[in-house]
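The protein record reproduced below.
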Amino acid sequence: MKASSLVSAAAFAGVSALLLAGCAGGGDGGGEDGGDAATRACVILPDAASSPRWENNDRPYLEEGLEEAGFETDVQNAQGDVNKYATIADQQLSKGCGVMLLVDYNGAGAAVAEKAKAEGIPVIAYDRPIEGADYYVSFDNFEVGRLEGQSIVDGLGAAGKDPATAIVVYMGGDPADGNAKMFHDGAVEAMEAAGIKPAAEPPGVWDGEKSATNFEQALTGLGGKVDAVWVANDTNAAGVITILDKNSLTVPVSGQDASVAGLQNVLLGKQTATVYKPIKLEADAAVELAVALLEGETPTADQELEDGTPYIAVTPVLVGPEEVVQVVDAGDADAAELCEGEVAAACEQYGITP
């Protein structure tokens, strides 16, 4: 895919779906702070391992946006621990929240959402769906998967392989993450339309090392033969690529997040493409929604999940080597970090200047 501007291609395509209508008297947020609680936005991030985005991107964007709007923020990270997730939530609720913005981790968000709503506090599920949330803000996750799947189809075509007979391994995300199914379903739609059927599909995880192990076992089971690997994100793709390198194989590999490692693999030709999700657009949509709720408004959205939760969806973009420079220009990747070592020559080739 080529585009004159990746950000403009995605710019607020989903954010504009947010329509503010009427007013509602929200709860006072409970807690010990009384009236002050209504001005506090409480945010829980899931971890730092599944993706670097949570601390490097989402935290500063959310904090800055909410604080610029005049609201106090309490942003904490559960560090991949469901018990810590619950403890953080209880501490935040005891101090009081005007709104809770939660990124789910292994289902921990549902219990927190239930507690918050019992206190009259609106809940925004951010990036990952949460049962019982009032709103869901995320990228169009089905489209993320569809773009990944199409990159595999196109990669096979470029390699002269017939998708209908190609040996393709599916490496999905952790099924405890509600987005993982949407990524999978979107990818499968695109790949099945081209005649692809999975030759192997290990259990889904969000872990690069486990993905490497799972893929190596699958590759062994296939006699060392593979034509492409659909992978749900860049971290998992990096694990898969270590095994492909070990076996001197280069095949189409998908991913998402436009992480530094993912972009480097794209530039080196080890990963066909990554789905770029301009995180600031997602954060801006969540901030807009949170501010509306903190100001007592009743937002509506033009999409909804299967369970009826209002869904504000932001548009993702597929990035191949020629588009990496635009991710850098948008400020979502640092050229100096990206172009280290063996990647330097590829950066020069594609116009990326540290």
